[in-house]
Amino acid sequence: MKTLRKFGLISIIILFVSSLLTGCIVPSSSPDETNQTDGEEFSGTITMYAGTYSPNRVLNANQKPATELKKLAEEYENETGIKIEFIKGLPADQDYMTWVRTKASGGQLPDIIWSQWYDANTALAKGTLTDLSEYLEQPNPYVENKPWNELLNRQIISDTKSADGSTYVINGDYVGTATYFNKEAFEKAGIKEMPTTWSEFIEACQKLKDAGYTPFAWNLASTPTGTDRITWLTRLFFTNFFADEYDELRYTENEGITNQDQVIAIKKGVFGPENEKWMAIWPILKDFSQYWQPDFTGGDSNGQGTMLAFLTGEVGMYFDGSWASQQIKSANPDFEWSSFKNPFPDHATSEFATEFDSSAAIGGPSASFQYAVPTKKANNSLTPAKEKAIIDWLMYITTPEHNEAIVNELGENVPTVAGAKPIEELSGLSDLANQPLQSVFGGINLEKKELDAIYRAFQGYILGDTTLEEFAKVADTEMEKTADSLIQQNNWDLSEYLEE
């Protein structure tokens, strides 16, 4: 068996949006594994909860099976003699994080788990996952011994560190949102370049309208998809408008803006109708609504209404996630299409616009290729030799070639390892992972009932049933009420932040 050339550990697991697997058993370690000493070379099995990219995940209708990790595991075993065993998923009614915490408390987590960076940094008890920082500068033997951190995305490494500087998750993909467009419609409308700013985007909408197309498919129905999409749009604007204040809005000095930070901003009048900057967004969105399809408040066909409208060929553009590319491809529309990153506000749009490109505010390194390594405390089968083997395997699957193959097989996300390229339909999103991981929600969705109430008021404003002032009054009432509720529930003493 070839001598492993890398040291390491990788930590945590938390599940992504979809595709839960069934039945979950972590094999107990064999005697030859647990008895290995520090100086020995590891031989045996590495267990891995691979989530969406697992070769044994349970598939929903129209989902593609993931096979690349299995193929790479077989190649790796042939080269090193080490077997990679993929853990089966949980039953649909079992909460993943509860399972992780329970297994960790008994020292029974797999050797590698899937986890979002923010869960790794905040949701799991300290000591559950291994800090991988010391391994990032070591050479990857599978890419000409280049330092591992030169292959992994440096922006993501920087933005996803914990408050104490630890790195718990190795990232290999990025979930993005995009503007999907009809190439034929753009050509007929005389649109030769993709819009990058909001003013260019609105100009494209007008050209599409003049050419006889519905410029944009939008969902303003009272459905989860409808409320979700409005938070996409407001996030695009809030993140840009408040970009120069981002660090100041991190009142509690966490990596990102937490719910507690948002409550403080509400109480200080930074988020809410008292602030002209916060209010400036809503008239811009109402102006945008003139380009939506006539039935934009209708049902959303299980979240697919805007896509179905786009597939008719009568719509020029619509917003969706990077995962939609494969669904559109499967539908085989009668026109060529592609996507570009969402346009961000500019000075021609509003006096409050900044130079910050907020395209990356909707999405992030929180997709399916996020793997962590539990500590000895959470995985009692771990030995120093096994730890080295785990890191070696993680280096093996984060070469540009292997990362690209794993991520592009499903075509739902963008690979982030340097040199790996996304599928053609997502090529316009390839640089999102290199932008700062920065997002401002504006205090409108701290709780579901708050967002629902503000969303209903927004619907009335867009439809002309209520005025901007009436909308603002509802938003102010709901945000203050929610802020007070969270302060009480969490026993927050915010006096130090609210003193003049």
TrEMBL record:
Superkingdom, taxonomy of origin: Bacteria
A matching Pfam family: SBP_bac_1
Gene3D superfamilies, per database record: Periplasmic binding protein-like II
Protein name: ABC transporter substrate-binding protein
